[in-house]
Amino acid sequence: MSANRVGIDLDTSLGYLLKEASSALRASMEAVLRPLGMTITHYSCLELLAQRPGLSNSELARGAFVTRQSMNVLLQALERDGFVTRPAEAAVGKVLPTTLTPRGRRSLEAATAAVRSVEIRMLGGMTDDEQADALRALRSMIHALRDDDGAPPSTPPVE
Amino acid sequence: MSANRVGIDLDTSLGYLLKEASSALRASMEAVLRPLGMTITHYSCLELLAQRPGLSNSELARGAFVTRQSMNVLLQALERDGFVTRPAEAAVGKVLPTTLTPRGRRSLEAATAAVRSVEIRMLGGMTDDEQADALRALRSMIHALRDDDGAPPSTPPVE
DNA sequence: CAGTGTATGTCAAACTACTGACATGAGCGC
DNA sequence: GCGCTCATGTCAGTAGTTTGACATACACTG
């Protein structure tokens, strides 16, 4: 029950709790998305496209927190199955803006309902104020971790 | 900036923010752990063992939020490299209690310092009250998502 | 204009963690 | 005791993601 002298106290560590919450959310989302034949990244991609049509592969990757290579293979599958469309050639640069097809939109609708139910359950025991506090706290953590990577001396950017 | 009518508003979605924060934390931890030749699961396993010596493979897996299969291959590597020890045969059931070796403890020390620096930076702009609020909020979300996985018998995916 | 730096799309290989499956052992009710 | 259930450790196979590498295209600076 009580913490040791050494190490980080897991019961009061925001980092550990954050990982635990994220893991629980991930498991719940996978559970409701699986019957629909979707993964979380799959759903995230569609949701991103619904809100910001025309997003590029790299932008989608950043929004879904995966590498652009991962998003690329996903996009190819989604295009092959008719959920999204991309122009064969870039109009201006190399960027290929992606848009949802009607089929993609329909597919997203069911997924959104499922995901919303998870979020509802997650927010179940929290007041609006608590939710606002949590939002603020998460934004603060995200901002604090942005850039300035861990080791100033010799840590070239990943990749 | 403003959300559409359809879908989930990403800018105010606790789920999305949670994923973003978790992703940022993961990246920062990987960055500081990489020079030490450790992965996050690797470190988590050692930290768990330092606080609760004798944990079994399955218990470690739950604590590190991976499957027991994943933890098993990690433990085999850690044992091979002399960071942990497990009895060759179970004393009572099938459970093999794992303990840190002196080498494992030394290795953990450096990692803990690195991880602590990340957590410090993450908590940088937050007051103690805000941290307490965040802790409460995360615990609430975790509790709400526990068990009752996505689809109870009487809740087929909506539509 | 050439040169540099940054960002993109894409291919390929390597890896990580997962799902599926099996045998074993403990706990429980009958 | 016997059968049932659950948890554990472990062995595969598999899906998703990452790292590595390359060619291309824009923006900036000299």
What does this structure look like?
Two copies of one chain form a homodimer. Chain A is mainly α. Chain A has a single domain (10-145), classed as Arc Repressor Mutant, subunit A. The first copy, chain A, contains six helices and two strands, in the order ααααββαα. Chain A has helices at residues 14-33, 40-51, 57-64, 68-80, 102-122, 128-145, and strands at 84-85, 99-100. The longest helix of chain A has 21 residues, at 102-122. The termini of chain A are far apart. Chains A and B meet through helix 1, helix 2, helix 5 and helix 6 of A and helix 1, helix 2, helix 5 and helix 6 of B. Chain A binds a DNA duplex (30 and 30 nucleotides) through residues 39, 41, 56-58, 66-70, 72-74, 76, 90, 92-96, 158-159.
Instruction: Using the CA coordinates, give the radius of gyration of chain A.
Output: 19 Å
Secondary structure class of chain A reads mainly alpha
Note poorly predicted spans of chain A: 149-159
Strand content of chain A: under 5%
| CATH architectural grouping of chain A | Orthogonal Bundle
Given the structure, what is the number of helices of chain A? 6
Mean pLDDT figure of chain A: 88
Number of domains of chain A: 1
Per CATH, the class of chain A reads Mainly Alpha
What's the main sheet of chain A like?
2 strands, antiparallel
Largest interface chains and counts:
A-B, 73 and 72 residues
Strand order of the largest sheet of chain A: 1-2
> Got a strand count of chain A?
2
The name CATH uses for the topology of chain A is Arc Repressor Mutant, subunit A
The coarse silhouette of chain A is: globular
For the terminal residues of chain A, how far apart are their CA atoms? 41 Å
The ordered H/E elements of chain A are: HHHHEEHH
Q: Portion of residues in helices of chain A?
A: 55-70%
CATH homologous group name of chain A: Winged helix-like DNA-binding domain superfamily/Winged helix DNA-binding domain
Instruction: Write down the oligomeric state.
Output: homodimer
Domain HTH marR-type (chains A, B): 11-147
Protein name (chains A, B): MarR family transcriptional regulator
Pfam families (chains A, B): MarR_2
InterPro entries (chains A, B): HTH_MarR-typ, MarR/SlyA-like, WH-like_DNA-bd_sf, WH_DNA-bd_sf
